[in-house]
Amino acid sequence: MADNKKNILVVGGAGYIGSYMCKCLSKEGYTPIVLDNLIYGHRQAVKWGKFYQGNLDDTDLLDKIFTEQPIFAVFHFAAYCYVGESVEKPGIYYENNVAATLRLLQSMIDHDVRKFIFSSSCAIFGEPVQIPISETHPKNPINPYGRTKLMVEQIADDFSHAHGLEHVCLRYFNAAGADPDGELGEDHQPETHLIPLVLDAALGKRPSIQIFGDDYPTEDGTCIRDYIHIEDLAQAHLLALQKLAEGRGGGKYNLGNGKGYSVMEVIETAKKISGRKILCQMVERRAGDPARLVGASQKAKEELGWKPKFTELSDIIETAWNWHRQHPDGYK
Ligand code: UDP
């Protein structure tokens, strides 16, 4: 591979998925260059390549980055990602996830960087009308977070037509698990995601886990999600990068395991793996939670050659438990 294809700007590279992506890029012979404002990211998780601290819409900083080294492609992980918060504070979501991304894209075009891989989300589909959810499913997001992701997909399409931006949008279902080597893991402040909260309860860091609703139309009444390991998400990015590098064009892909697990099943699996007691408290439904989200990823398998390795929930939770047990206070 020619050297100018090696530098990958990873925006949000100090975060949960972005930091693991940098590790994988580095293993594959690429040079990650991280841009992160460290509001949610962790400096300790940036171990590969050069680090720039700043915002993704800081055009002076982007000018500096793009002129200091040739960038082959940009991976964009730097989004606010709390659905509930997006309902309460839509402004910061549209500002960070949409407006700042727009400035990043404009800056890329100004510097003739035209390969873009975007972390999108299954939240763009809204309430499912068909399960599993394929790429052709109607896109009617039901919260500002989902709308910001869909808007960026649309902006990227417009930039493709107008400016020749080549892009891949990867729509994650529920990202989960930790680095199988135990080096990197999930440490959100505040934490709102089910698996790390359940593991905190197993560690005794929380008295119990709240179950948001047991009256959904599912087998045990709790919500069903499709959990996908960060290693499999990172591999999808590498395959997408390869596709762009080989001139095979961009695309939009749903990334899930095609298998759903209920909140109760997640808790039961975590109990088995940790061997600890986990107390549950049944509470009201959380606003904006669809009953069932399960992805169809046939397109990613066929067009990218994607083969998820962590297809069992227990294997996913095991990696998360290993990291949690060894880092009870996260990166601190
Ligand atoms: N959930 C729960 N208790 C919690 C956190 C989450 O019951 O403390 C449920 C939530 O309602 C959803 C599932 O767990 O059905 C996964 O939620 P998470 O926030 O991890 O991801 P999301 O599906 O919102 O992206």
Notable traits:
single chain; 332 residues; alpha/beta; Rossmann fold; UDP-galactose 4-epimerase, domain 1; seven-stranded parallel β-sheet; two-stranded parallel sheet; 10 helices; 13 strands; binds uridine-5'-diphosphate
Kindly describe this structure.
This protein is α/β, with parallel strands linked by helices and 332 residues long. α1 (16-27) crosses α7, α2 (59-68) runs parallel beside α4 and α8 crosses α10 (313-326). The strands form four sheets. It has a seven-stranded parallel β-sheet, with helices on both faces. Strands 7-10 form a two-stranded parallel sheet. Strands 8-13 form a two-stranded parallel ribbon. The chain is globular. β1 (7-11), α1 and β2 (31-36) form a beta-alpha-beta unit. It is built from ten helices and 13 strands. The protein folds into two domains: 3-176 and 227-255, NAD(P)-binding Rossmann-like Domain (Rossmann fold, 3-Layer(aba) Sandwich); 194-225 and 258-326, UDP-galactose 4-epimerase, domain 1. It is 38% helix and 17% strand. Bound molecules: uridine-5'-diphosphate (UDP).
